[in-house]
Amino acid sequence: MRANRLIPFWLRNYRRQWLLSDLTAALVSGMLLVPQGLAYALLAGLPPHVGLYASLIPLIAYAAFGSSSAMSVGPAAVLSLMTVSALSPLAAIGSPEYIGAAVVLTLLSGLFLFAMGLFKLGALSNLLSHPVINGFVSGAAALIIVGQLPALLGVEADGETASVKLLHVLEHLPQAHLPTMVFGVATAAILIFSRIWLPMLLFRLGAPKQLARLGARLMPMLLVLCAIGLVHWLALSDELDIVGDIPAGLPEIVIPDWNGHLVFQLLLPALIIALLTFVESLSIAQALAARRGERLNADGELLGLGAANITSGLSGGLPVAGSFSRTAVNAEAGAVSPLAGVLAALLMIPVLLYLTGLFSDLPLTVLAAIIIVAAASLFDFRGFIHNWRYDRTDGIAMLCTFIGVLLFGVEVGIALGIGLSFATLIWRSSRPHIAVVGRVPGTEHFRNVLRHDVETQEEILFLRIDESLFFSNISAVEDRLLSELKRHPATRELVLILSSVSRIDGTALERLHQINKDLRNRNIRLHLSEVKGPVLDRLSRSKLLEKLTGRIFLSSYIAELALRHGDEGEPIPEEPA
Amino acid sequence: MRANRLIPFWLRNYRRQWLLSDLTAALVSGMLLVPQGLAYALLAGLPPHVGLYASLIPLIAYAAFGSSSAMSVGPAAVLSLMTVSALSPLAAIGSPEYIGAAVVLTLLSGLFLFAMGLFKLGALSNLLSHPVINGFVSGAAALIIVGQLPALLGVEADGETASVKLLHVLEHLPQAHLPTMVFGVATAAILIFSRIWLPMLLFRLGAPKQLARLGARLMPMLLVLCAIGLVHWLALSDELDIVGDIPAGLPEIVIPDWNGHLVFQLLLPALIIALLTFVESLSIAQALAARRGERLNADGELLGLGAANITSGLSGGLPVAGSFSRTAVNAEAGAVSPLAGVLAALLMIPVLLYLTGLFSDLPLTVLAAIIIVAAASLFDFRGFIHNWRYDRTDGIAMLCTFIGVLLFGVEVGIALGIGLSFATLIWRSSRPHIAVVGRVPGTEHFRNVLRHDVETQEEILFLRIDESLFFSNISAVEDRLLSELKRHPATRELVLILSSVSRIDGTALERLHQINKDLRNRNIRLHLSEVKGPVLDRLSRSKLLEKLTGRIFLSSYIAELALRHGDEGEPIPEEPA
Questions:
Q1: Domain A434-565 falls in which CATH fold?
Q2: Which of B224, B182, B193, B216 is nearest to B370 (CA)?
Q3: DSSP 8-state assignment for residue A16
Q4: Phi-psi region of B448 (alpha: psi -120 to 50; beta: other; left: phi over 0)
Q5: Do B290 and A445 touch (CB under 8 A)?
Q6: What is the rounded distance in angstroms from the CA atom of residue A575 to the CA atom of residue B157?
Q7: Most CB atoms closer than 10 Å: which of A8, A538, B393, B493?
Q8: According to the model, what pLDDT value does residue B4 have?
Q9: How much is the pTM?
Q10: Mutate to test the interface with A, among B127, B384, B391, B529 (most CBs of A within 10 A)
Q11: ipTM value
């Protein structure tokens, strides 16, 4: 029984007939893991074989805890960018110190993820709103693309910021290295073609729809093999920058250099990487689970991603997460369970043992093209337009995060985005919507006088407050209340409809006391209606209910009935305390 | 006409019969201004005469814009503490650099206040919740008291933090300077007595109630004069630390030393001082206006306080604000208009011209006693107990601010408080209250099933969401929704009651789409009821309304009627778009 609980949930219920599907999916997604692993390791400033190592044990570790049926965990472009951005101020890219720091960074972010899973802190991911994530990913994609242009075109270009680098690239374009450029641009063009038109072409040529899509997705591996063939055949290995020797053999466990100062410096970047890993992976897994009608265990995902990053740290140091593109391929190829991921990882073993020599002739420009095309697909123009239309403040938060990433880098960009999200939240709640309402004739319902044909009473003013009352908005509420009383000078009874008020904090309570007192001096009674249970509980601990000049009504309709007829003596149902 | 607009509002409508009242009030509050000015200038680390200068032109400048009928503007204990805390890291207390920096600090905070008035940014004061202000003021009061103990008791005591200083004082108590201690403790004892028992005593002796209270309030000035007399008569001026020479004559305009680096260093402290000045002064003025049934113009107050601090900066550099104690005295003495403040300021002219010699023999321990007793009255125990009972989070914010001020000083303390206020706001809105509701039998009202005897339907689940939907809480809402569906497995129709939802942001909208899709797969229809106008406007810009499996109902009652009878064809009043 106890031993049984150590076996992952999905494995306990595994059915034999799933094996073929999972194996097919593993073969297909494994074909993507190789070029992406090499490319993203280079992007992170690490030796290419680290990308292959990160595609082996971490995938198995994820499957031990994770529950998503088809999410493909492994190296990811945005995380690689964050790695290089966090580490390059600390050590020269590619130096032993750099690689050591990458190990610590990945381990730390894995530990953060695992701890978040243990303590069930999945809710931390709510710190990031979708617009901020979209803005961040789009900004990171732009940085990645500009960063890869020199490698793609064979030009020299330096520059602190993306725009300076882009200018340098354009300036030096006439000195571009022609063979590099031809290889790179051709690869990029074929990849773009195969993303956009190839599925349709294959479909028209008679391939089943699913196969057509899959075929197009496998283009990166095909191009990698073609490029290696061409370099070998045309003897271009001296002419082009190539991957170079990749050590054959399985990864060995790296003993991390736990240096207190380094750990301290990497805490914040590791936390940000952990948060992004979780948010990105979870949104992929959730979308998938929804499509398949499965339920996802967020804390299990956290443990899985944590284990994956801890093992990735110990086997080389490239952060891993759920990858959008590989997950799509994995799902389309028919993955039924995390076993597909495990099998894809096992495929990495023969690659590492026997095929590393093959990849040494791979031109870097081909990897740059793969990175660029993958990054370009991360742009979310439609999401931006949608956000801008639906909610201007969301659009602005997205734009600011995007620009922040471009101008100040990934860390500042994401901090800006989170700050903006919360500033928006606070700003909105400090400008509450307040409506003068009247009764819809013939019903018991009260609606905004500006939007509906409603009946109002001259002496009774109904105000609906559409926000909880807090220190940050009580002044605005008071101002509005006084200006409405000025507009309705005959008012003798003011009814505040608190149907939307879920909390009243101490500051707001004090001010309500004051308002009640002021209105008494003006011979206006203050009533409350539709007070929610929790609010009433709280209010009954204060003196407001005692001092209130008016009454508390179950509904606005009852309030109107009572106040219009002045039936002070009639028993009216009030909210039980 | 135009010239008329330059004359302050209160002066245009001034009635001659008010003059006597205002003059009386001016005489009385002027009697308080002298000792408080001297004391708070010393507290701020400035020469005592600066406190008198700050009680002259700034009061007139305030009256040119301000509208409060009896608020007494002038030096204030908390601001003096903030001044010394901001400036002492930059220059030695009392040095010319220190005094120059005080000028710049006061000017800057005046400029901030004036600019906030011009741009109508009075709402900025909403950054500070009452509990945070209470905690801050109480903490500052404790710092002030501990800081004045050495001067009061005539002991030497250093120490970075308040607790260390207090320990030093206690340690060195046996070496206290006896005459200083006698003067100081006696003054403090008489002041405390005159605050608590003297009004009652005078009243019992036959004085009218108001006069009795006023008499007690004038005790500081009386004690100052007695102390000066005693020092003179007993020739104690060599024995005791005394105020020393005060230059006679009116203040001259100080040319501030605008040094870019200094200005930059003082920006943040000046902003905090400006915010606190405004919040403190406004709450005093508001309380007063409420009692007198007057309306206050917050932007005018900002301009007035700004002008007061700009002129105070130019005439010496002690920040000024509305003072709680002096305002109470001013109001009790019958002040009817800001003219009382102007007249009190004019009284400062003969003091500065002819009476400065008188105050040179004033023992510092007497001023320390005045400061300590004034600071002690700033403690707000009752407010703390009240906050703690009414709203635990408010109580915690107050306590943390208080402790923060004590341990880390005024700036860190207030930053902590503001941060905590907002963290609370965010934390609360990320844990929305959600209730399963049912219909109160015989009515159209829906109430929480846990609190009321209500009717529910097996196939229809009504959930009321008591918070706007945001990125920070949509996960919590989704989790609750799924767990309620698990608890009510027969549910075929889910009605979300959005009566409390004032906004749905982009992240929440996306998730609602997803929830709608997931529920469709489970054969559950999703309906919305009581959607507010602004929310519906926003939603109609998205595709949710198209894709919604269920409908939008004007009220939950209509929803129940329609869904229970399955009257799909019947015309049901829906919310107009």
A1: Transcription Regulator spoIIAA (3.30.750)
A2: B224
A3: G
A4: beta
A5: no
A6: 60
A7: B493
A8: 62
A9: 0.70
A10: B391
A11: 0.71
